[in-house]
Structure formats: structure tokens, C-alpha cells
Design brief:
28% of the residues lie in helices and 30% in strands. Bound molecules: arginine (ARG) and zinc ion.
């Protein structure tokens, strides 16, 4: 009896306590705030907790004359916990209104965090729709490594790119590579301009008011850092790969002549990659050549890598195409895993050369060991400055060791297991993590299981070890 009485007394107190800790002021669903970051070791505030995005529908309106962007982002997401509020990442721009499930939602901003408080708490497992109306002149972000990303204006246009954290400068979202979603990116521009984005062009519509609307659709999931939007007076050409994948190339004025030869090889590179790495992971391919000097790098934006000026080095096209398998389809779980992108894309350059009468991968590997710049101009760079799987800080994730020593790790595996098992591993890795995310430890475990070899020494020395391996 006594026991029952106690329980009865305790129940309302417990309920009150739950309501208090959840910050709940009423209603029956008890949610709590979603985390403001995913605690990425390098970018702790990137991404947000408590939900996963299924789809982004971005409606962008851009006028190159004044540089103003008007955007509506409709984000469909699933709550992974009861949510009283959740965050989106957004840098700069002005938020004009937010709705959740069609109901106006309170929101506030602090730094790059947009906190949204729905009128009613969201239940765990609930699929919900957030609409954010926003606009302004998007900013260029300088990343920790000193490179420009975000939104960059060009001659008569602009480009949005986002590795690692620039996408939040042009649309609100869950900006961490681990949350992949499908996209519809619609861009409306004045007549005379092209607007290019990831995936396939579903419609090109004259809006009747002197503007054209380009509706781009990405059916395969994409990490937000791989999204792009490009506006300008581009020259568009289309073709198909030998196996029928549609190719869409957009080239900035003045870059056409120098781009012609490298871009003409793209279809053949897609076929080659499909042979080496397994089926091409997307339904479309192509390239975007920005005006020279727009960026200090090329980027593997999904289905259509961007190049800053004509990609006169064929290697660079191979590199960005190889990322479509490694980085875009198999994406990193965190920014620490960047070598899985860059090591593979660099190794692909070596393989392309090996398969096309150039140096073999073994020759490249040795050239880097000895610093032989006759084989590769970069062979004397400090690829041994830090272990590829542990860059010392966020400013280092795109540095030499991540690329070259990352490629050397792959070559060391090949030396240990032989060609047959190595290429089976490469194809298996791409197939088994297709359109998903993977970490370094996923890779090392997978490599040992798939090849049946103990590769601990390779990991200890080449992947995680400090100093120059020999
Ligand atoms: N991921 C690009 C590539 O190697 C390089 C980007 C480097 N710069 C940057 N800010 N993310 O293909
Ligand atoms: Zn790369």
C-alpha cells in the first residue's frame, strides 16, 4: 500500500520535471532542441542534430546586374527525436520568413545558426516540411585553408560552391557531408543568361517577364558541399557518353577553345572510370568551366565538376571525374575522412596515366618517395608533413599529404595484395558504399576483410604515422 501511494505521488512530479527539462510550455508532445552542430572534429558547428534531410527544393532567383539572390528553400526532413526547435546552417543573407508544416514558425539567428521553433513540437520519426524565404547579396566565405567558397561573383554572373562549409552562404540546410539528400534546384535569371546546377535539366521555361527558369533535378543523394549553382553567359553543349549517359557542358566565354580538347575526352573518361571503379554512379555527367581565376581550385560538384578556367591539364578532369565515385557517391562521414576523397581521386590520375601509355602508378609512387619532379612536378612537395588520416587542423584538410600520401596509401595496399585483389577492393568499396557515407575506420576494416590481408602496418605507417615512411 505504502509503495503504491508513493508511486502515485511521484508520477505528477516526474511529468513536471520532464516538461521542465524539455522546455515544454504546453501541448502533449515533448520535444527538446536539436543540437546546433554535429561535433565534426574540424567543423563542430557544421550540420545540426535531431533530424535528417530527405530533400531540398531550392527556388533561386538571381539578377547578375545587382547581385541580389532571392531564395525559397523547402526542406523535407525526418525528426530523429522529439523536437521543440532545430537549427539550420545559414551564413549571411536575410531571413524573411519560416514555416514548418505550413505554419509560421519563430526563428532567430546567431552566427551561422538559424534556430527554428515550430508552433508545435515535432514527434520523433515525423516527416516535416520547412520553408525558408530569404534573400540578399550572398557572401564569399574564406575557408580555414584560405580558399574562397560560398558565393562568388564572376563577369556577368556568379557561382555557388561549398567545400567544406560554403554552401550555407547560398542556402539554409544541414550542412555536413554526413546528411545526404536529393535536390531540385530551380534558378531564374534574366534572358540571355544560362543557369546551371547539378543533375538533369528538367525544364527550361520562359517566365514571360523577360526571364528564364532552369529546373535542375538531382535524383541521387548529394552532400550539400557538392551542390552548385552557376549563372552567366555560358556556352552550353550537350552530348552522350558511349554508353548513353547525357553530358552537359557549360563553358565561360573565352574558355571555349582551350576547353574543347579536355572536355571532348570526358565521355571516354566516364567509360574508363566505369571499368576501373564500377558503374558510373549518376544519371548525368558534364562539366562547368568558370571564368579563369574565379577559384583557386577545381571542385567535384556532383555530376558537373567546376573548373576555374579551361582544364588544360587532362589529369584535372580525370581527378574531378574520379571524385564522382569517391567523394560524391561514397562520401566522407566527417571532414577528417577527406583523404578517402582526395587519395582516391589522385590515385585515379596515376591509373589513368598507367592505362594510357604514361607513367605507371608504381612509377608515381617511387617518384614521390624520391622527390623526382621529372615524373611529377609535385613529387618534391611535403607530402609527409602529416598523416593523411589525421590532418592537424581544419585548415589542412585540402593539403598535399591528404592528396599524395593518400594516394600512396592506396598504392601500398596494391603492393601488399596484388592487382586482382586491389581492383576488387576498389570496386567493392564503391559498390558497397554507393550513395552513402564512410569513414577511415570503415575503409581499413573493409580493406582487410575484402582482401583477406592484415594491413595494420600500412595503416600504422602510411595512414596514421607521423614522419616520412621509408
Ligand atoms: N576537392 C577539390 C579537389 O581536389 C579541392 C578543393 C580545395 N579547396 C577547398 N577550399 N576546398 O578536387
Ligand atoms: Zn580532389
Amino acid at each position: 500500500m505504502e509503495h503504491r501511494a508513493l508511486t502515485r505521488l511521484a508520477a505528477p512530479a516526474v511529468a513536471a520535471l520532464i516538461a521542465l527539462t524539455a522546455g515544454c510550455t504546453g501541448g502533449t508532445v515533448q520535444g527538446r532542441p536539436g543540437a546546433s552542430g554535429l561535433r565534426d572534429a574540424y567543423f563542430p558547428k557544421a550540420g545540426n542534430g535531431g533530424y535528417q534531410v530527405d530533400h531540398y527544393a531550392l527556388d533561386l532567383d538571381y539578377d547578375p546586374a545587382d547581385g541580389e539572390l532571392r531564395g525559397t528553400a523547402v526542406i523535407t526532413a525526418r525528426a530523429e527525436q522529439g523536437l521543440s526547435s532545430f537549427n539550420l546552417d545559414l551564413s549571411g543573407l536575410k531571413v524573411e520568413g519560416v514555416t514548418v508544416q505550413g505554419e509560421p514558425a519563430r526563428h532567430n539567428r546567431a552566427g551561422n545558426e538559424l534556430t527554428v521553433r515550430p508552433a508545435e513540437d515535432l514527434k520523433k520519426g515525423e516527416v516535416f516540411r520547412v520553408e525558408v524565404d530569404y534573400g540578399g547579396k550572398p557572401r564569399t566565405v574564406v575557408d580555414p585553408g584560405g580558399a574562397k567558397e560560398g558565393w562568388i561573383t564572376t563577369e556577368g554572373g556568379a557561382v555557388g560552391v561549398g567545400e567544406p562549409v560554403g554552401s550555407m552562404a547560398w542556402f539554409p540546410g544541414n550542412h555536413h557531408p554526413s546528411d545526404k539528400a536529393t535536390y531540385d534546384i530551380t534558378i531564374t535569371v534574366p534572358h540571355g543568361y544560362e543557369a546551371v546546377s547539378n543533375g538533369e535539366l528538367r525544364a527550361r521555361t520562359d517566365t514571360g517577364d523577360g526571364r528564364t527558369e532552369f529546373a535542375w533535378h538531382s535524383p541521387e543523394p548529394m552532400s550539400s558541399y557538392l551542390a552548385t549553382a552557376v549563372v552567366g553567359p555560358y556556352k552550353v553543349t550537350t552530348t552522350k557518353t558511349p554508353s548513353g549517359v547525357p553530358v552537359y557542358n557549360a563553358v565561360a566565354p573565352g574558355e571555349e577553345a582551350e576547353s574543347a580538347v579536355p572536355l571532348a575526352r570526358l565521355p571516354e573518361m566516364v567509360e574508363w572510370g566505369s571499368g576501373r571503379f564500377g558503374p558510373y554512379p549518376f544519371t548525368t555527367t558534364g562539366a562547368i568551366v568558370l571564368p579563369k581565376g574565379t577559384l583557386t581550385y577545381a571542385l567535384e560538384t556532383q555530376t558537373k565538376p567546376v573548373f576555374s578556367g579551361a582544364p588544360v591539364e587532362e589529369d584535372l578532369v580525370v581527378h574531378e571525374l574520379a571524385h564522382q565515385w569517391f567523394g560524391d557517391s561514397v562520401s566522407p562521414k566527417s571532414w577528417k575522412d577527406m583523404w578517402l576523397n582526395e587519395g582516391f581521386a589522385t590515385y585515379a590520375e596515376w591509373l589513368w596515366a598507367e592505362d594510357h601509355g604514361g607513367h605507371t602508378a608504381e612509377e608515381y609512387f617511387r617518384a614521390f618517395l624520391t622527390g623526382d619532379t621529372d615524373v611529377d612536378d609535385d613529387a618534391d612537395l611535403d607530402w609527409d608533413a602529416f598523416p593523411p588520416a589525421a590532418p592537424p587542423g581544419p585548415e589542412k584538410i585540402s593539403e598535399t599529404p591528404v592528396y599524395y600520401r593518400g594516394a600512396m596509401v592506396l598504392h601500398r595496399i596494391r603492393q601488399e595484395v596484388g592487382d586482382a585483389k586491389f581492383f576488387d577492393l576498389v570496386r567493392g568499396w564503391a559498390a558497397d558504399h554507393r550513395h552513402a557515407n564512410a569513414s577511415t575506420s570503415d575503409f581499413t576494416a573493409y580493406a582487410e576483410k575484402r582482401t583477406g590481408h592484415d594491413l595494420k602496418k600500412v595503416w600504422d605507417v602510411w595512414l596514421y604515422g607521423e614522419g616520412r615512411p621509408h
